[in-house]
Amino acid sequence: MEPTLLLCALIALTSGLHFGRRFAQAHRAGGAFLLPALAHGAVSSALILLATLLDPTPSRWLWAAVAAVSLSGMAIGALRPERAPAQPKTLTLTPSANAEVTAQAPAA
């Protein structure tokens, strides 16, 4: 595979993962989940057009690979479980009842 087409596929995968996560977040929050899908569609269509123009193979089917990677990235990004936010750990220092302090006189 050409490095340019591999780069198109990797960008499509990354875009799909990112916008799939945004789609899932908007869907859970009850927001407008159409915006991440449209943004990913715009990025993917540009990458598919670029893959179509740069395809050196005689069958000219590498655009389909970029499209499949794009759609699977969106699906994986939307279905991937979200990490729970880290809970801040607070450390409280309290005086201990068993603490012993001994004072020594300096040696003269």
Features:
61% helix; elongated; mainly alpha; 108 residues
Structure explained in plain terms:
The protein is an all-alpha fold and 108 residues long. The protein contains three helices and no strands. It is elongated and about 95 Å long. The model has no long low-confidence stretch (mean pLDDT 87).
Short characterization:
Helix content is 61%, strand content 0%. The chain has helices spanning 3-29, 34-54, 62-79.
- Which class of secondary structure composition applies to the elements? mainly alpha
Low-confidence region ranges: none
The first-to-last residue Cα distance is 85 Å
- Fraction of residues in helix: 55-70%
* Mean pLDDT score: 87
Determine Rg (CA atoms, Å): 28 Å
Which outline best applies? elongated
β-strand number: 0
> How do the helices and strands follow one another from N- to C-terminus?
HHH
Number of helices: 3
Major sheet description? none
**What share of residues are in beta strands?**
under 5%
How is the secondary structure organized here?
Elements: H1 3-29, H2 34-54, H3 62-79
